[in-house]
Amino acid sequence: MASFNASVRQSGKTYIIDISGDLDAHTSIELERTIQELIDTGRTNIIVNFSKLNYISSAGLGVFMSFIDEVRSKGGDIKFSNMPDKIFQVFDLLGFPLLYEIYDDENKAIEKFQMTAS
Amino acid sequence: MAEEFKAELTVQSSMEQLEKIRGFVSKAAEMFGFKEDDGYKIVLAVDEACSNIIRHGYGKNSDEKLHIVIQTADNRFTVTVNDNGKSYDIRTHPLPDMDTYLAAKRKGGLGIKLIRALVDEIEYEHRNGENKLVLVKRLPAR
């Protein structure tokens, strides 16, 4: 398997997924599983931290697309943070910044969740 | 002038091979003189094309093969992907209107849009049961 890893941290009521390595049509299944587990256990305030991600293809973007409606319908959101320029350019090419909140710093995304909750 | 060379790679039609394909294209792109940004673009375009062939052309049958040839001349970096799967011309694929697409939050279908945005030329030929997809990216003028 290509080098990809997804691990979850908790900050209050927010769950941060750190992804690293290459997110492609092969490894996107692992990210799908990680997000599905969070949703299944009622954890829908999700931040994906991209700081260690080296590569993303449309299969990776498709994962976020497939969960966003369900997460938002449950009162949560998937927000993105710490995106390297080369990754952002792929999101930008497809117009994803219109649909997702993208923060340069993870803490700003956490604050946004806290503001929404209060 | 950029370096002229030819390189070839044959892999099984499995998603597991995408990393190897990317490594192959990335190394050649760097040798050719692409900056990291443009290198990323051609690597992504080839990855999307190969994923499509594996998923749709071969229906995820990993017993088949993909043959990839990289050839450079002047300022042109040409990647040819050969396969024997189902024929499909990505040049004629209707592109989704992104507003409608994002509103519908569909999962797939973004790969072809990316390929068409990332490379300068696309050619496709289906002959004697073989598909030949040619992607060309030019080195930007200095």
Summarize this entry quickly.
Chain A has 118 residues and is an alpha/beta fold. Chain A has helices at 28-40, 58-73, 85-93, 106-117; strands at residues 4-11, 14-23, 45-56, 77-81, 102-103.
Structural notes for this entry:
The complex is a heterodimer of chains A (118) and B (142). By secondary structure, chain A is an alpha/beta fold. Chain A has 4 helices and 5 strands, in the order ββαβαβαβα. Chain A has a 5-stranded mixed β-sheet, sandwiched between helices. The longest helix of chain A is centred in the middle third of the chain and has 16 residues. Chain B is an alpha+beta fold. Helix content of chain B is 37%, strand content 28%. A 5-stranded antiparallel β-sheet of chain B has the order 1-2-3-5-4, covered by helices on one side. The model of chain B has no long low-confidence stretch (mean pLDDT 92). At the A-B interface, helix 2 and helix 3 of A face helix 1, helix 2, helix 3 and helix 4 of B.
What is the topology?
The complex is a heterodimer of chains A (118) and B (142).
Chain A: E1 4-11, E2 14-23, H1 28-40, E3 45-56, H2 58-73, E4 77-81, H3 85-93, E5 102-103, H4 106-117
Parallel strand pairs in A: 2-3, 3-4, 4-5
Antiparallel strand pairs in A: 1-2
Helix pairs in contact in A: 1-2
Chain B: E1 6-12, H1 18-32, H2 36-57, E2 65-73, E3 76-83, H3 98-104, H4 110-118, E4 121-127, E5 130-138
Antiparallel strand pairs in B: 1-2, 2-3, 3-5, 4-5
